[in-house]
Amino acid sequence: MLSLHNLQTKPGVNKAKKRVGRGNASGRGTYSTRGLKGQKARSGGKSGLMPRSMKSYLLGIPKTRGFRSMASKMAVINLKDLQSQFNDGQVVNLRALIKKGLIQSLDNGVKILSTGALTKKLTVEAHAFSEAAKKQIEAAGGKVTVIALRPEKIEKK
């Protein structure tokens, strides 16, 4: 049975360390595989070398792709959500949206988008609407009311 105490490495896996500077007969004498003169041939020479080009400097820096905006995003609600969550003739305001669990907070405002179809007559109050969403709500016989963000939130942006 194979266990930790009887594991063996395959033959030829562990190579012997290269022994340099042991005379010319060893094949690694005289310059000890360092070549002739120069900074790399001297003791401590390799560590003192610095990259000379901008390219090698840039290659050493970790890159994060894309761009992440620092501006806060509005909560987004689609018309299909309003269709499924509200009854005909209801008023859809911020309090109702929180109660139904469609949004968690009002910190950054609410925007209504036009994904899905709306057939119910709703009165919708939100901070922003897409043009297509406005048209669909009004076409279904509903009403659109744009409410302003609180002044302290506008200043933070």
Summarize, please.
This protein is 22% helix and 13% strand.
Defining traits:
157 residues, alpha/beta, Ribosomal Protein L15, Chain: K, domain 2, three-stranded parallel beta sheet, 5 helices, elongated, disordered C terminus
Describe the structure.
The protein has 157 residues and is of the alpha/beta class. The protein has a domain at 75-156: Ribosomal Protein L15, Chain: K, domain 2, CATH 3.100.10. Helix content is 22%, strand content 13%. It has five helices and six strands; from the N terminus they run αβαβαβββαβα. The chain has helices at residues 54-59, 79-85, 94-100, 131-139, 151-156, and strands at residues 75-78, 91-92, 110-113, 123-126, 128-129, 143-146. The strands form two sheets. Strands 1-3-5 form a three-stranded parallel sheet. The protein has a three-stranded parallel sheet with strand order 2-4-6. The radius of gyration is 35 Å and the shape is elongated.
Topology:
Layout: H1 54-59, E1 75-78, H2 79-85, E2 91-92, H3 94-100, E3 110-113, E4 123-126, E5 128-129, H4 131-139, E6 143-146, H5 151-156
Parallel strand pairs: 1-3, 2-4, 3-5, 4-6
Shape: elongated
CATH architecture of the domain at 75-156: Ribosomal Protein L15, Chain: K, domain 2
Number of helices: 5
Based on helices, strands and strand pairing, what is the structural class?
A: alpha/beta
| Topology as a string of helices (H) and strands (E) | HEHEHEEEHEH
Largest sheet: 3 strands, parallel
Unreliable stretches covering 5 or more consecutive residues: 153-157
Which fold name is given in CATH as the topology of the domain at 75-156? Ribosomal Protein L15, Chain: K, domain 2
